[in-house]
Design brief:
CATH architecture of the largest domain in chain A: 3-Layer(aba) Sandwich
Low-confidence stretches of chain A: none
Order of helices and strands of chain A: EEEHEEHEHHHEHEHEEHEHEEHEH
Number of strands of chain A: 14
Largest sheet of chain A: 6 strands, mixed
Strand content of chain B: under 5%
Number of domains of chain A: 2
Mean pLDDT of chain B: 87
Shape of chain A: elongated
Distance between the termini of chain A: 34 Å
Oligomer: heterodimer
Structural class of chain A: alpha/beta
Radius of gyration of chain B: 21 Å
Largest interface: A-B, 31 and 24 residues
Mean pLDDT of chain A: 83
Distance between the termini of chain B: 29 Å
Number of helices of chain B: 12
CATH superfamily of the largest domain in chain A: P-loop containing nucleotide triphosphate hydrolases
Strand order of the largest sheet of chain A: 6-7-8-3-9-10
Low-confidence stretches of chain B: none
């Protein structure tokens, strides 16, 4: 849906976006993850047509953003970091105005869409209020409603959950997940759990460069080059620690010891092993063959947070 | 066209939501009608006294033109007072949108910049007309009690409208240059004063610079309208100033993408 090639944006001597390329596929949620000032907002603004690029091309639904800006803008719903609201207007009037300027010509269609966004962004009870009376959370939702009003196939959301309380964040996340499938979504965030919870794919961006991009699961594996499991064993031979270490493919074993452990209590190990197909199954079988009872085997994934810190600190 | 109307209505209504429209129109009408009543009173007194004197001395009763002594003066006031009030109307047009970030909404919507600029211009222009239209009642009053010449009144209104559009387009341009309304307001006010004062300079010198100054003066071009003459030179001046203002505003907004 969006195809970005070698995009750069320079502010004076500062490279805000440095030769990035990526694409947004139909129906997926692509997360832009990076610290503040990484170039997320600039990239989104370029795609939405608010800024021009220094270099590179962007195609949205097959149209180049320079050659067909009107067609591109009709296909995009854009929520900037700061929701662009006219504070003196009422919510309903504001959304109606947005519908007008975004090309919903017929009044009937506009009313229908208005009804839809008010319902789905839970704005029913505030639709007659002036925007300056709304709380931060409601304003964010009005901003989201504004981006959705013309039913665009592509949504670009710049920090959609910023400034919301935890309940509202969950609400917005669910809403975004619901939209995916019909709509393709590009969203940015600097909150890591959010990216792993909402996005199908994540691009990690720092200082204008894309450092990594993949599904969250693959990212984890790629970075570590190994997988990790936690096992809980009962019984078995005394030298089980050495036995595990000798298994093919096992890289590292460590035992979690607690001081008040009695002799008969289960023992818990953390085992890292090489990546490979069905490695985990082989490991489980080998453990059982030692004569121990395998009480628990839990894969331990690196959190996105760890990946993020690892990647962004690499280049510094 | 639809887009222009959408922008226009939102902008025009917002003048009434924030009390700008009421304040500006109110101040304008109070000042202008005050001058009208004062001048009209003067005129009545003066013609009474002159008539009485003529009767006493058995000479011819003199005739005074209400056009020259009242109407011209009132239009001069409308012109000068609007010069002071129009910056309040134009200063927010783009500066406010830039500050609050709503310009981002407009520029990422499928609108052309021309539609945006025209919609905003027309909104300010419509407010200016709303402000001037009540002064038509002065003429009704004069026609009821006197016998003024209709021609100069009509040309004066035509002049005022052209003058207003030129000034608003300059104000719109200045508003597009900054994010700060106060700066926009102060610069607009300065620019208007400059365009006004430059005419005074032009009156006193006869060099080529004096002529140029006189040509650039936004008020000097109004004089012939006040006398009931529609001079194509003046019409062209106002229209081209309007056009230049709108064109440069377009360029400024367009260039915002290239920051």
């Amino acid at each position: 849906m969006i195809q970005v090639d070698n995009l750069s944006k320079r502010y004076g001597n500062f490279m805000a976006v440095d030769n990035i390329s990526f694409n947004l596929r139909k129906g997926e949620i692509l997360g832009f993850l990076g610290p503040n000032g990484a170039g997320k907002t600039t990239t989104m603004r370029i795609i939405a047509g608010y800024l021009s690029a220094t270099q590179g091309t962007v195609k949205v639904s097959g149209y180049d953003i320079y050659d067909h800006p009107q067609k591109v803008k009709r296909n995009i719903g854009y929520l900037p970091e700061l929701p662009p609201l006219y504070h003196e207007m009422r919510v309903r009037d504001y959304l109606n105005f947005c519908g007008r300027i975004k090309g919903l010509k017929s009044g009937r269609v506009r009313r229908k869409r208005l009804q839809y966004v008010i319902e789905h962004c839970s704005l029913g009870e505030v639709q007659k209020l002036h925007i300056h009376k709304l709380s931060r959370g409601y304003r964010q939702r009005v901003g989201l409603a504004q981006a959705l009003i013309h039913n665009p196939p592509i949504l670009i959301l710049d920090e959609p959950s910023a400034g919301l309380d935890p309940h509202q964040i969950i609400g917005v996340r669910q809403f975004i997940r619901q939209l995916a499938g019909e709509q393709s979504i590009l969203l940015s965030t600097h909150i890591l759990p959010e990216a792993s919870l909402t996005c199908d794919r994540v691009l990690i961006i720092d200082r204008g460069k894309i450092l990594a991009g993949d599904t969250t699961e693959k990212l984890t594996g790629k970075l570590k080059g190994c997988d990790m499991v936690r096992v809980l064993l009962h019984g078995g031979p005394e030298d089980i620690f050495q036995r595990i270490k000798a298994f093919p493919g096992v890289l590292e074993v460590s035992e979690q010891k607690s001081p008040d452990r009695k002799k008969d209590d289960p023992r818990s190990f953390e085992i890292s092993y090489e990546l490979g197909k069905n490695r985990r199954g082989e490991l489980a079988r080998a453990l059982v063959e030692t004569g121990a009872e395998l009480l628990e085997l839990r894969p331990k994934a690196m959190t996105l947070e760890e990946i993020f810190i690892k990647i962004t600190s690499k280049g510094h | 066209m639809r887009n222009i109307i959408a922008i226009f209505w939102r902008e025009y209504k917002s003048y009434y939501v924030s009390p700008i429209a009421y304040v500006v129109i109110g101040v304008f009408l109070i000042l202008v009608s005050n001058r009208f009543i004062y001048k009209f009173n003067d005129f009545v007194q003066m013609s009474f006294m002159a008539t009485a004197q003529a009767v006493n001395t058995q000479s011819l009763i003199p005739k005074f033109s209400i056009n020259d002594s009242v109407i011209r003066y009132v239009f001069q006031n409308i012109r000068n007072i609007s010069l002071f009030l129009l910056p309040m109307i134009t200063m927010r047009l783009f500066a406010e949108e830039r500050r609050t970030g709503t310009l981002e909404l407009l520029l990422t919507s499928p609108l052309t910049i021309i539609q945006l600029v025209l919609g905003k211009f027309l909104a300010a222009f419509a407010l200016f007309l709303t402000m001037v239209i009540p002064t038509v009642s002065f003429s009704f009053y004069l026609f009821t009690y006197g016998n003024p010449d209709l021609g100069p009144i009509l040309t004066s209104y035509a002049g005022i409208i052209l003058y207003g559009s030129a000034i608003i387009s300059v104000g719109l341009l200045i508003s597009s240059l900054t994010e700060n309304q106060i700066i926009a307001g102060a610069l607009t006010f300065g620019a208007f004063l400059f365009l006004w004062i430059i005419g005074r300079v032009g009156e006193t010198t006869v060099t080529i610079w004096g002529k140029l100054a006189n040509y650039l003066s936004i008020t000097a071009h109004y004089e012939s309208f006040a006398m009931g003459i529609v001079n194509s030179r003046d019409v062209v001046f106002y229209l081209s100033l309007t056009f230049i203002g709108l064109f440069l505003t377009y360029q400024v907004i367009y260039s915002l993408r290239w920051r």
